[in-house]
Amino acid sequence: MPDPSGPEASWPAGRRRALDPDGIEWRRLDPKYLTLRLAGTAISATVWTALACAPLAAGALGLFTPPAWLAVGLPAAVAALALANLALVPRRVRAMAYAEREDDLLIRHGLLVRRVVVVPYGRMQYVDVSVGPIEGALGLATVKLHTAAPAGQSTVPIPGLPDAEAARLREQLSARGEARLAGL
């Protein structure tokens, strides 16, 4: 049953059915993934705001006199956009989930544009697990499904999984993919 506090709670019933098939039990990402995304977004916001302060710094150093809209307005606008982006991170993370079915894997994501990607096990070429330095410190991993897609996205990531779940999912998907390919 979908989580009533998740972003799908506000979806109209007709649209929810198309994006959330009946009988699907969505698995959410590890809550530590939210920490990772918040930290990354905060670092990015700080860097962009600092870069936007370059005209202000140049004016303070006497290199040139920037107009007020550039010296003050640009950093303020960048900081406001960064804070808005930071505020949306928890909802974006809550919108991400995956579900295993008998013949395929469903992955949903997106806040403004909601998407459900269906990956048939028979189309998977290989499953990759990666762990970055910050992910490793938090005990998280990313599972990447590489598919035989004729066009578009041929790599489908599932980030923010606990190490044990990533290993289990890799083995499960690999076994199901081999079984489907053997049946061809």
From TrEMBL:
Keywords: Membrane, Transmembrane, Transmembrane helix. The chain crosses the membrane at residues 36-62, 68-88. Residues 94-173 form the YdbS-like PH domain. This is YdbS-like PH domain-containing protein. It comes from Sinomonas flava.
